[in-house]
Design a protein that fits this description.
Elements lengths: L3 E8 L5 E4 L6 H6 L3 E7 L1 E7 L8 E5 L4 E4 L7 E8 L5 H5 L7 E8 L1
Antiparallel strand pairs: 1-8, 2-7, 3-6, 3-8, 4-5, 4-7
């Protein structure tokens, strides 16, 4: 059985991540198209995705706190990235009660 891995990224309000493909798993795992599962917590973000590595032609979707993004199968190899973080968009509860630092916490699960 292959291990499951959680990658934790924190983006401050000026955080970004250029378009890229996740290709650090084994060839066998990549060929299976096993899904990537990503949880967003905190500020909203503008998430980009495309079949090619071109920011100008990339589709955009806003991911809000609590959103889950899953891509697998043929979509497993899409180019994806974060173009911007939307400041002060986190649920007030996260700031007041959980004392979460301003920004976006992303938990990404993959099977290696």
């Amino acid at each position: 059985m292959s291990p499951n891995v959680c990658i934790v990224n924190f983006y401050n309000d000026s955080g970004r991540l250029g378009l890229h493909q996740d290709r650090d798993e084994s060839k066998e795992r990549l060929e299976k198209g096993l899904p990537v599962v990503s949880f967003s917590i905190g500020n909203s973000t503008e998430f980009l995705y495309s079949d090619v590595r071109d920011v100008d032609s990339a589709e955009k979707v806003i991911l809000e706190s609590g959103d889950v993004l899953i891509f697998g199968g043929k979509s497993r190899h899409i180019f994806h990235g974060v173009s911007c973080i939307k400041p002060k968009t986190a649920p007030q509860l996260l700031n007041d009660d959980a004392n979460l630092r301003p920004g976006r916490l992303n938990l990404t699960f993959r099977q290696y």
